[in-house]
Amino acid sequence: MKPFLLSLAVLASCSLGAQVPSSQKPLTATSTLVLVPALVHDKAGEPVYMLSASDFLLTDNGQPQALRVEDDAGNEPLAVVIDLEVGGAGTREYDKLGALIPMLEALVGGVQHRVAVVGFDSEPTLVQPFTAKIDSAKDAILSLQPGCTRQNHFSNCEGPDPVHDASLGDNGAAILDSVAFSVSLLRAQPARYRRVILLISETADRGSKVTLDDAVRAISDTNTSIYSIGFSTAKSEAAHYAHQQLPTGPGTPAQAADESRTMPPGGVELFDRANHIPNPPTGCMGKIPEQQLTDDPDQNLGRLSRLYDCMGQLMPPLLVARVAAIAASNGLKRNAPETVARLTGGEYFKLTNAKSLERSLSVITNHLPNRYMLSFQPVSPQAGLHHLSVKLIDRPGLIVQARTTYWSDDGNAEAK
C-alpha cells in the first residue's frame, strides 16, 4: 500500500476510561490512499457481487476520482469493538441484548479476528481488551451491569426511589466520547485489519466532552466502519449537550441571532436560522415544509442525506466540504448512532425488541464480509473534512451505501 496523507487525531481531552493513560497524546495515522467501503445490494437487500471499478462513480468534494476495487477485501483480518451503552436509557434496553451473545461468532466470521468490548455511560470503559477468544468477549458482555438511573431502579442502588439512586453507572450517554475511544483502540491494531465498531446506544448523546467538530474528525477515519443499532431517547430529560455548538439552529434568521456568534469569512452565515437544515427535498437550500416533517429524526435525517449529490453541481469543492461538516454536526445532534454509521459507510438499525436486534445482527453478519473496498488517491488534496459520493453507473435497481466523509491533514494543502 502506498504512503499516505490522510490523518486523524483523537482528542486527548476525551474521557477514555481508567485503562488509558492520562498523558496519552493525540494519535495520527497516515497514508496516501483513501479507502471507501461500499455495500451494493438489490431492492430486497441482498448483496450484489462481481462489480468492477468501471461500475462506480466516486467524487471527492464534487470532483470525480480514478478508483480501484481492492481484491478479496472480505477475507482480510477483522478487528471489532463492541460498544454498548449501559447507562442512561441503555438500562431500559439491557434485557434485549441477549441475542448478541450467540451471534458474536457469526459476526466475526471465519477470518482471523480480534474483539474488544467497551461499555459506557457518562464515560467509556474498556471492559475487554482485544482478544481472539470469542468466549472472553461473550463473558465481558455478560459482565456488564446497567447503571442506576431515573429510568430503572435496581436492588444494588441506594435511595428511596429511582430519582435518588446512587450512580453505579450513571444517567449519562456519552456516545461520541465512546466512539472516539473505540476508534483510538482500533487505530492501534495492525494496518491490514479491517476495523469495525458495533455500537448499541440511544439516539441522543448526553454528556460527551468531545466537541462536534472533533467527533466528526474522529469518526472520519477512512478505515473504520460503524454499524449502529439505536433506540429512541425521545423521553429523555436531558437536552442534547451540543446544542450551542451547532453553526445554525431553528428559529430566527441568523442576522438576528446571538451577537457573539462567530461568523465565517466574509461575515455572512452559510445558512440562516429559518433555513437551518441543508439540502431539503424542496431544493439544495430550501426549507422543509412543516407537513413533511415527522417526529422520527431517523426519517428526517435520511431524507436529507440522500440529497447531497446535487451540491457537487452547484458549489465549489471547499463549500461542499463546509456543507458536509455542518450537516454531519447537525446529524450528530439529531441522531448520533445513525449519523456515525452513515459517515463511515456502515449501517443503522432501530432496536425495538430482542427479535429486532437478532434481525439487525443477521443483516450485519451478511453484509460485513460482502462489501466492496474502493480506493483512490485524491486528485486535488485539501486539508479538512471531505464529502464523498459514490454512485453506480447504468445499474438501475441496485443501491449503494458507502462512506460519505473522510478527514485529510494534507500538509501541502494547509500551506496553500
Automatic annotation (TrEMBL):
Keywords: Signal. It comes from Granulicella sibirica. Coiled coil: none annotated. SUPFAM superfamilies: vWA-like. It comes from the Bacteria. Residues 1-18 form the signal peptide. This is VWFA domain-containing protein. Gene3D superfamilies: von Willebrand factor, type A domain.
